[in-house]
């Protein structure tokens, strides 16, 4: 099934913006939301310059406010219906990477990351699945991380825990809709250049550009597999090795 009408959260920058650009090149209609409306307005202009034949809807959204998530998702659904279209795919992408080792006085920042990355994702998945169950079709895409497979030290501790949580949540939803015309995909990006990776003091290994990463993400999403590792090399092989890594190895990694 061709998924032409796509909702992306956290679309004002980074991976969300990169994916929006790639989908626009493919002729997809887009519903984009994020906290920074001014960035979305600039992105809409850019997307319509890339492809003036697509529809682009934008709305501000803080995913940590559950009632707003439901309101905005249903508003986007109505936007598509007004053009005789249905919402085909929702990409749960909004997130943040604030964090510090526990007990170091950064409890507020760690909690912000936990609430945004997990509770916010839960609200998005609830709202998306409500729409998909009603129309009996759709593709739910959850952006997790390669950090979901083991615990991570220092500033990554809470971030990795939230990505493990959404990985598990997405799998649970996938089980619920087995044999139904609703697909659920979990995407595990490695290090792709973004605002989150820019905040890391030491450049992480195997980093790829946002442009390349966005192309690979969209390619993986369009395949609609249950799980995808982006880029496949070397991260799929790291996934196989991670269960056998000692805590000392993880600390260095």
What would your notes on this structure say?
- There is one protein chain.
- The chain is of the alpha/beta class and 253 residues long.
- It has a single domain (5-252), classed as Rossmann fold.
- The chain has nine helices and seven strands; from the N terminus they run E-H-E-H-E-H-E-H-E-H-E-H-H-E-H-H.
- Strands 3-2-1-4-5-6-7 form a seven-stranded parallel beta sheet, sandwiched between helices.
- Helix 1 packs parallel to helix 2 (37-50).
- The termini are far apart.
- The model has no long low-confidence stretch (mean pLDDT 94).
Helix-strand sequence: EHEHEHEHEHEHHEHH
Q: What is the oligomeric state here?
A: single chain
Number of H/I helices: 9
Instruction: Write down the CATH class.
Output: Alpha Beta
Please give the share of residues in helix.
40-55%
Strand content: 15-25%
In CATH terms, the superfamily is NAD(P)-binding Rossmann-like Domain
Placed side by side, the strands forming the largest sheet appear as 3-2-1-4-5-6-7
Largest sheet: 7 strands, parallel
Structural class: alpha/beta
* Cα distance spanning the termini: 40 Å
Radius of gyration over C-alpha positions, nearest whole angstrom: 18 Å
User: What CATH architecture do you see?
Assistant: 3-Layer(aba) Sandwich
Task: Give start-end ranges of low-pLDDT stretches.
Answer: none
């Amino acid at each position: 099934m061709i998924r032409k009408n796509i909702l992306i959260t956290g679309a004002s920058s980074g991976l969300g913006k990169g994916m929006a650009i790639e989908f626009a090149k493919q002729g997809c209609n887009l519903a984009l939301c994020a906290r920074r409306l001014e960035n979305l307005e600039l992105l809409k202009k850019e997307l319509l310059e890339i492809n003036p034949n697509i529809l682009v809807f934008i709305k501000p959204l803080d995913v940590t406010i559950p009632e707003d998530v439901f309101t905005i998702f249903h508003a986007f659904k109505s936007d598509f219906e007004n053009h005789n279209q249905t919402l085909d795919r929702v990409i749960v992408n909004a997130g943040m990477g604030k964090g510090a080792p526990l007990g170091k006085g950064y409890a507020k920042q760690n909690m912000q990351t936990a609430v945004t990355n997990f509770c916010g994702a839960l609200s998005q998945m609830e709202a998306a699945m409500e729409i998909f169950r009603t129309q009996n079709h759709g593709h739910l895409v959850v952006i997790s991380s390669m950090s979901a497979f083991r615990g991570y030290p220092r500033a990554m501790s809470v971030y990795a825990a939230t990505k493990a949580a959404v990985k598990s949540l997405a799998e649970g939803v996938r089980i619920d809709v087995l044999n139904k015309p609703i697909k659920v995909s979990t995407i595990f990006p490695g290090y792709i250049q973004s605002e989150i990776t820019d905040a890391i003091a030491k450049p992480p290994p195997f980093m790829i550009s946002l442009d390349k990463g966005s192309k690979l993400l969209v390619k993986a999403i369009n395949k609609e597999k249950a799980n995808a590792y982006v880029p496949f090399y070397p991260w799929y092989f790291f996934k196989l090795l991670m269960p056998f890594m000692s805590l000392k190895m993880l600390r260095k990694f």
